[in-house]
Amino acid sequence: MAGKKESFSTVWKKHKYKYLMIAPFGAIFIVFTLLPVLVAVYLSFTSFNMVEKPEFVGLENYVKLIVYDPIFLTAIKNTLFFAIITGPVSYLMCFLFAWMVNDLPRIPRAIMTLVFYAPSISGNAYLVWKLLLSSDSYGWVNAWLLKLGVIREAVTWLVTKEYIMPILIIVQLWLSLGVSFLTFIAGFQSLDKSLLEAGSVEGVKNRWQELWYIILPSMKPQLMFGAVMQITSSLSVSQLSIDLVGFPSVSYAGHTILTHLHDFGNVRYELGYACTIAVILFFIMLFCNIIVQKLLRKLG
Amino acid sequence: MKLIAFIKNWYYRRKFKRRNRSIGGDLLLILVLGFFGIFSLFPLLYTLTSAFKPFSEIFMYPPKLTVENPTLNNFFDLGTIIEDFTVPFSRYVFNTLVITGVGTVGTVILGSMAAYPLAKYEFPGSKLMSNIIVYALMFSTSVTAIPNYLIMSALGIIDTYWAVILPAVGGTLGLYLMKNFMVQVPDDMLEAAKIDGCSEWGIFWKVVMPLCKPAWITLVILSFQQMWGTTGGVFIYSEELKPLSYVLSQLVSGGISRTGVASAVSLLMLIVPIGVFVFSQSNVIETMATSGIKG
Predict the structure, then answer these.
(1) How many CB atoms lie under 10 A from the CB of residue A75?
(2) pLDDT (tens digit, 9 = 90+) per residue, A133-153?
(3) Which of B107, B131, B192, B248 has the most other CB atoms within 10 Å of its CB?
(4) How high is the pLDDT of residue B289?
(5) Is residue B7 part of a domain?
(6) Comparing C-alpha atoms, which of B159, B123, B155 is closest to residue B239?
């Protein structure tokens, strides 16, 4: 913003209230969010084991990570595969379910919102999946498949290479009606109702036309917000994988960028290297975000 | 046939029936919602019933969703464990109330305050700030924990409530959410308020916030949930300052013999956020019905 003709004092006089309203949040944000991020970016150029002082090593971590770390490539592959499916699907699910729920009368709407939101309301409710998919014949899924004669012996769902990724994807989708879903619900609630009525008078024939011509164009800010949320959440899966399929998972089938980070940050205490992973993940997210924003701008 | 005619008649007379809605579409909608609703609710039902299962039923083969002999034993066991704590249980509840209350109110108010100018005005630095806010959402928080710890110990707030409250308030999700809703507040409404002699501060409280009620109610839910689930981690180490979810998560990791107690704990931890959710959601719907806000 440099190079503006106005001097500092005229800018301040004109926009004093705006800066003052941002200031309290801004101060906390700079100290507790921005500063730690900048420190982490600096650390990505160092070798740091949390005991000795960080030692500057230039691009060494980046070279090591991209060229000499085959497991990181597996992690990227897994993460992208996971995100390409769960990102768009969960985004559509959030929007479609919010849209359908919104068409219900008052009380059923409140109930259904709760039903869909319930999985993400408690931090670790997904752990019940571990019981359901338990490897012995006591696991719910195994027990029923055995009883129905689909399988002959218990399947070790969570430690079989081929099943790990599909299971993670299903559980993530089950969990995904969270922030974006609620935001879309709120978006529908703050829609201008007179727009919909005017539409129905002027010949909007069915709910699909209403969705396309009225709702989508007026929900753009919420759609943008939801997109950012789904991109970040689908690319930063880690706790789910660690809790469900263990760490490290069988043949690294559930290994993601963030579990790789967890490995170096929380297990091996190579924080410089862990920060490098975080920086690379940041750029992957940024890249996806730019593409999706471009796509969304074309809409409606 | 008479019954079908009756249902049809009833259906068309309902208030929620809008002109451009077909009966087939409504039926399809109910079917789809019902089907996925069961899928969504199922594992939670399992938690619910497990909490009331006696030990013999938890490991029954084949496992069942329903309870045959419901019992409160899991809760009594939990009670016995709680009585043995060195710190009184009420202390943990108090800690959680303070952290959740201050954290939620702080996030909603400070975030909304900062979101308003960024959403509705352009001024030197506004573009840059808006961008930084989105980018900040994309940096993994697991590596910022260490720098955060260093900063907090320099400020001397490690092992206080602030150590978990301030980083949460400084997160940008709330601001970004509010900003995306505030963009939709019509400019002429702000102009009209200004002509009526309203200050920026007055416009924010009396015009913008009421119009964005669905948005900040959503933020209350999200923020409450986040604060409710925080365990304090390494930032709070004194036992008498630890929040509820820390102790309860300790109980859950107690192995197979504690499976029943763990389900009871999960259930209890779920009840409060669900209560807050239902309360705030019904609040939104209530205002919408009475005042009919236009955005």
Answers:
(1) 23
(2) 877 777 778 888 888 888 888
(3) B107
(4) 45
(5) no
(6) B159
The whole-angstrom separation of Cα A117 and Cα B222 is 11
pLDDT at A125: 67
Mean pLDDT confidence for B70-90: 85
A186 and B284 in contact by Cβ < 8 A?
yes
Quote the mean pLDDT of chain A.
87
Q: What is the identity of the amino acid at B142?
A: S
Which domain, by its residues, includes B273?
87-291
Domain A69-298 falls in which CATH fold? MetI-like fold (1.10.3720)
Domain spans, chain A: 69-298
Residue B73, classified by CB atoms within 10 Å of its CB into exposed (0-12), middle (13-18) or buried (19+), is middle
Residue ranges with strand state E in chain A? 46-47, 55-56
CA dist B104 and A18 (Å) reads: 23
Q: What is the pLDDT of residues B13-67, one digit of tens each?
A: 655 556 567 777 888 888 889 988 888 887 678 778 888 888 778 777 666 777 8
What is the domain count for chain B? 1
Q: Cβ of A128 and B46 within 8 Å?
A: yes
pLDDT in tens, A108-118: 888 889 899 98
User: Smallest Cβ distance to B136: which of A33, A119, A194?
Assistant: A33
Asked whether the beta carbons of B180 and A189 are under 8 A apart, the reply is no
Q: Is A185 helix (H, G, I), strand (E, B) or coil?
A: helix
Specify the CATH number for the domain of residue B154: 1.10.3720.10
What's the token pair of residue A211? 């969705």
- DSSP state string for A189-206: HTS-HHHHHHHHHTT--S
Q: What is the pLDDT of residues B240-271, one digit of tens each?
A: 899 988 888 787 776 666 778 888 887 888 88
In a domain, B277, yes or no: yes
Residue B242 lies in a domain: yes
**Amino acid, res. A16:** K
pTM, two decimals, is 0.87
Coil, strand, or helix at residue B69? coil
Query: Which of A10, A17, A25 to mutate to probe the B interface, most B CBs <10 Å?
Result: A25
The neighbour count for residue B112, using CB atoms within 10 Å, is 27
Nearest residue of B to residue A221, measured between CA atoms: B180
- The CA distance from B123 to A16, in Å, is 10
Q: Are A97 and A89 in contact (CB under 8 A)?
A: no
B244 contact A CB<8A: no
Rounded to whole angstroms, the Cα distance separating A131 from B50 reads 11
CB atoms within 10 A of CB B28: 12
Average pLDDT of chain B is 84
Confidence at residue A275, expressed as pLDDT on a 0 to 100 scale: 93
